[in-house]
């Protein structure tokens, strides 16, 4: 008998076991497996859609997708079809931008450009560098179209947003109606107006 509480010691043990039962080890493992399976089945929240404007390809955009390989394919050269490794910092940047614009369509204007495509654009009078970051897989041109909007976010506002997020690469702003996008690359920090 417990002198302090006046109960039998065995009653205390039985009462505790009835209130706080310890499940067998196998049921603890089963519950952990079930919780892990539940987590694996729950998709992450949708950030938006990645949309390649030249091919019409669309990819679900969330915390886990697309994979780097899918991103590289989406940014493939639109003339030759060549897939080139794109710097992973660009996919990370687009993820961070999409988190600030939930449900938006992230339109890819330009990704990897082969030397052939780059030269073709230069000959047609487009303002592209002869040694473009695009040809290295180090740049992406994009725009953000928010839900229920017809026009993309102003490229000047996107530039401010990128810099506010700490982006230290190049940023080009293109504000013609025909070229309404922002350029981001992993090269040195610099900025320019495309038109």
Summarize the structure.
With 195 residues, the chain is an alpha/beta fold. Helix content is 34%, strand content 23%.
Catalogue the unreliable spans.
Answer: 1-23
Q: Give the N-terminus to C-terminus distance in angstroms.
A: 91 Å
Number of helices: 6
What is the CATH fold-level name? Muramoyl-pentapeptide Carboxypeptidase, domain 2
Structural class estimated from helices and strands: alpha/beta
Any idea what the radius of gyration is? 27 Å
In total, the number of strands is 7
Number of domains: 1
Helix content estimate:
25-40%
Instruction: List SSEs in N-to-C order.
Output: HHEEHHEHEHEEE
Give the strand content: 15-25%
Largest sheet, strands/sense/barrel? 7 strands, mixed
Strand order of the largest sheet: 2-1-3-4-6-5-7
Reading off the top of the CATH hierarchy, the class is best stated as Alpha Beta
Q: Overall pLDDT, averaged?
A: 82
What is the overall silhouette? Answer: globular
Could you give the topology of this structure?
Layout: H1 9-19, H2 25-41, E1 46-52, E2 58-62, H3 68-74, H4 88-100, E3 104-110, H5 115-123, E4 139-145, H6 155-164, E5 170-176, E6 179-185, E7 190-193
Could you name the key traits of this structure?
disordered N terminus; alpha/beta; 23% strand; 7 strands; 195 residues; 6 helices
Architecture overview:
The chain has 195 residues and is α/β, with parallel strands linked by helices. The protein has a single domain, classed as Muramoyl-pentapeptide Carboxypeptidase, domain 2 (2-Layer Sandwich), CATH 3.30.1380. It has six helices and seven strands. The protein has helices spanning 9-19, 25-41, 68-74, 88-100, 115-123, 155-164; strands at residues 46-52, 58-62, 104-110, 139-145, 170-176, 179-185, 190-193. Strands 2-1-3-4-6-5-7 form a seven-stranded mixed sheet, covered by helices on one side. A hairpin with a 5-residue loop joins strand 1 (46-52) and strand 2 (58-62). The longest helix has 17 residues, at 25-41. The N and C termini lie far apart (91 Å).
């Amino acid at each position: 008998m417990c002198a302090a509480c006046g109960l039998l010691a065995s009653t205390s043990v039985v009462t505790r076991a009835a209130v706080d039962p310890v499940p067998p080890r196998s049921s603890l493992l089963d519950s952990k497996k079930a919780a892990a399976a539940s987590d694996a089945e729950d998709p992450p929240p949708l950030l938006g859609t990645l949309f390649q404007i030249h091919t019409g390809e669309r990819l679900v955009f969330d915390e886990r997708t697309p994979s780097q390989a899918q991103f590289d394919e989406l940014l493939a050269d639109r003339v030759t079809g060549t897939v080139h490794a794109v710097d992973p910092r660009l996919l990370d940047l687009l993820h961070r931008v999409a988190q600030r614009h939930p449900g938006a369509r992230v339109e890819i204007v330009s990704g990897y450009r082969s030397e052939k495509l780059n030269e073709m654009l230069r000959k047609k009078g487009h303002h592209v560098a002869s040694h473009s970051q695009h040809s290295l897989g180090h740049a992406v041109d994009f725009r953000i179209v928010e839900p229920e909007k017809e026009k993309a976010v102003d490229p000047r506002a996107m530039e401010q947003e990128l810099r506010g997020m700490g982006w230290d690469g190049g940023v080009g702003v293109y504000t013609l109606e025909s070229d309404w996008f922002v350029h981001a690359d992993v090269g040195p920090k610099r900025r320019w107006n495309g038109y």
